[in-house]
Write the structure tokens for this entry.
Amino acid sequence: MKIYGESAHSAGLPTPRLTINDGGIHPGAWVSFRDPAVDVGTLGRVLDAGACGIIFPTVEDPATAATLVAATRFAPRGKRSYGPTRRSPRYAKPAPGGMEGDALCILMIETAAGLANLDAILATGPDAIFVGPYDLSLSLGMTPEELTGEGQDGILADIARRCREANVVPGIYTGEPMLSENMISLGFRFMPVASDTGLLAVAARDAVEARHLRR
């Protein structure tokens, strides 16, 4: 099971975010957050609470990318501080120093500047790139439909190809199954296909329609 928490566009503060971490961690769960924070101390708290990965929005240059990559990895691969008091004793603690003990560092490309610096950002060694198609299309002066509908010769397919060549996993926000299938055909390997609010809205609509049918 994979749980993706949204902090950049939510009203939640760090405390609820950490509570979600604690509630979501059990055998087989994978909890990640899109986090607006670049402060290393705040990132450390989220990671120590059990996040398996952080998605960082609006990464536009390699210097920022290198800082974020280092903040999610223990020495000698990075600069994350080791906090052995994380999580409940029921859950395994990370083994610092190796890849298996590091959280995933996922950098968002969602502006023209980030796209222009993509190769340099990839060279910093993130685990994945996550494209924000709505903000990227605005930054490029396009509509989201134009950006996502370009096909194999378009910008998104090129991003996915450059990520694969750099051994970095390409991902993108989709929010619905049909667009997800299109993005998979372009080479993207992970994407959220639905949100909690969207699923609740669908369930509520279905419940109302079912009640009308019974009348």
Notes: The longest helix spans residues 196-214.
